[in-house]
Every structure is written in structure tokens, then in C-alpha cells.
């Protein structure tokens, strides 16, 4: 099967479909860095620019499949939500026009209709102008958008129309072997005699009882409230005196990195004195106003909210923490995501055997009421993800985006982060391809 990939990015589709024996007919991408990646990996495949200009090209008759994820910024909860009024959002309808042009040429040539695969963010379900209904209606050949169901668009379904049947399903990358929670809407459509095959491919009945999605987390309001009421307290991890003004009730796993782990100590007057290590604080965020001991620095204002953001994140918007104890949130386009992982006191019995915290000069803690020979102390390590880790989070081979760029043998991190954050999760696309291949007439 040959496919035309539009809004190609760095071509997750080609990485996904290559093991199936499918080959790209052509790409369409306007961004400079992704185009360079495509040229590096697929030098023999034509790469066009604006895909809206392709519907008049005669060679598109050879496309057995049209696939692509039109820009999501107009639908994402992290964007301005202008939907179809945004030129980028309106490209969903241009996608329909290209699909119609391909099928018209194929019908004239006596060929079977093309498979149509489209991807976008779940935010497309909740726009004020029913963008998803407009897209489905156009894809199926209806004269009006398909009305949104009373309870909102479900995570899976199928609709029929004069020209095509379209099935949709929300797939989450974490259920396909990747270490990130990345939900995306996939729509599969086709016309002709075998058009109901799209439902067999995307919504296989055989899997009805085999999926076990992880339960959703709460929004974390309790965590935020606790920190607000007890900010800068010693908390359980610091052993505050009963009745003391500094007796706190911060959650231990948040308190430890803020107090014992990061150098907070008692000054002998019943108060806490901040002595956070500047090099660690400076690593936490690029827009930190100051570090410990510098003008403008405030532990409650700068450190506490940051650590809460790292733990709770913002799943819908793509930003968020990457904490080793759970799946990470959706990979974003920027390089501002961090990996935070926690080492506990050896008394807790869960310290990694292969790595030890920094040894102390003496056998006592800075807390005047706590003694003991700590070899490993509670700590939090914070760093950014590397581009290779982001490639793995999306299912790409290591170094896939590290190409010669602008006269240098390797690429800078910035465009690699962006292109990976905008890409599909490869295993999700491969699963759809395998399903199509299994039922394709």
C-alpha cells in the first residue's frame, strides 16, 4: 500500500508503517527542521509544502491511503480554542477536500476508494462550534455537521454517510508500551463497498474486555490546599515539636525535598532558615526569579508551586511532570518538562542500591532534635528530559531527530523537542496499520 502523508512532521506514520511493507507516495510539511529530518531519512520521497495545493495534482490518484494530523493548536485546551475560525483549525476541512479529490480520481480510474486516517487532540470534542461534528459530516458526505450527542462526544464511535463510513477512537500511548499518558483521537474512514471495514479495524469486538486503562487521578486540590496552609513548615519529615508554630502537616513526599533534602534547617529560635542550594534551585525552572540568599527569592512563592506543578501537572494541555513513580504526562513541544525522582532515607528501606546520596561531613543532621548517622538522606533530583528520552517516549529509534543541521553534524535540542512533541506516538499508528492490514479486502 502507498500512502500520502500530510502535515508529516518527522513521519511517525512512516516509522509505524515500514514494518508492514507500506511505502510513502509523498510527504507534505512546511516546517524547516521536520523537512530536514524527512530529507535525511527518506531522500527518495518527494516532500511538498502546503497540502491544500495537492488536490489538483494528478499523481494523488496513486494514494491508497491519506493520513495526517492537522494542526491541533486551535482545539487544544492549552491553546486559544478558536477552533474552525483559526486558519490552522480550518485545515481539518481542507483535509476532507483532499480526501474527496483523491477518491474522485480513483473512482474515475476504476480504483477502490482510499483509506483515510486522521489524528488530533481530544480537545476537538469540546469546541463551541462542534468542529468534530463538522469534520465527520464532511468526511461522510453529509450536507450538515453531525450533531454532538447530548452527553458530548464519546471516546469511540462510528457514523455513516453518502460517501464514507467513519469510525473514531481515543487511543492512549501508555497502553501501547510507551511511558507517557498521551491521549489522541484517531479517525479512520473509507467509502465504497468495503467501507464498514473501518469499524472492524478501529473498533474490534474481540478486544472488548481486554483493555484495562489506568484510573484517572484527582485534580490534586487537596495537595494544593495542604501546601497553602502549611507552607515552609517542618512537616512530618522534619519532626516539628507538638504545639510549635512550625508544626506542619505537609504531605511527606512533598515536604522531604523541600526541607531535609534541600538544606532547610532550624536556626535555634524555633524557626526554619532557608539554605537551599542555588545550583539545584536554578535547575528547577528557567524563569526562577532568584535563588536562595538572593534578592527577590521566596521559598513559598517559587519552590512550593513549582514542585506541586511537577507532581500534578496539566494533563489536558500537554505540559506536566515526568515523575519516575508513574507514567509521565503528555510530551510537550517545548524543552521545559523535567524529570523529578525521589530518593528516600535508608530507614525507609527503598533507597536505590546502585546510587547513594552525597555523604555528609558529620553524623548528625542540621535539625537540633534529630541525630543519627545518615549515609543516604532524603533528596529530590530534578533535570530535563534528553531528546533521546523524548524519542523513546514517542516510539522513535534513538537519535532519529539528531541529523546534520545548518552546517553542523548534529541538531540542537530545541527543534528536536518541538518536532517530537508535535508527532504521533508510533505504536498507536502501527497498531492501526496492523488492524487495517488484517481486515483489508
Write the layout of secondary structure elements.
Blueprint: E1 2-6, H1 12-17, E2 23-28, H2 32-41, E3 47-48, E4 65-68, H3 91-108, E5 115-120, H4 131-140, E6 156-160, E7 165-172, E8 183-190, H5 197-202, H6 221-230, H7 235-238, H8 252-258, E9 265-266, E10 272-273, H9 278-284, H10 299-312, E11 322-323, E12 338-343, E13 379-384, H11 387-394, H12 413-421, H13 426-439
Helix pairs in contact: 3-4, 11-12
Distance between the termini: 12 Å
- Topology pattern, helix = H, strand = E: EHEHEEHEHEEEHHHHEEHHEEEHHH
* Sequence of strands across the biggest β-sheet: 3-2-1-4-5-8-7-6
**Mean model confidence by pLDDT:** 73
Give a structural overview.
Helix content is 28%, strand content 14%. α3 (91-108) packs parallel to α4 (131-140) and α11 packs parallel to α12 (413-421). The longest helix is centred in the first third of the chain and has 18 residues, at 91-108. β6 (156-160) and β7 form a beta hairpin. The two termini are 12 Å apart. It is built from 13 helices and 13 strands. The protein is an alpha/beta fold and 441 residues long. The strands form 3 sheets. An 8-stranded mixed beta sheet has the order 3-2-1-4-5-8-7-6. The chain is globular and about 55 Å long. The protein has helices at 12-17, 32-41, 91-108, 131-140, 197-202, 221-230, 235-238, 252-258, 278-284, 299-312, 387-394, 413-421, 426-439; strands at 2-6, 23-28, 47-48, 65-68, 115-120, 156-160, 165-172, 183-190, 265-266, 272-273, 322-323, 338-343, 379-384.
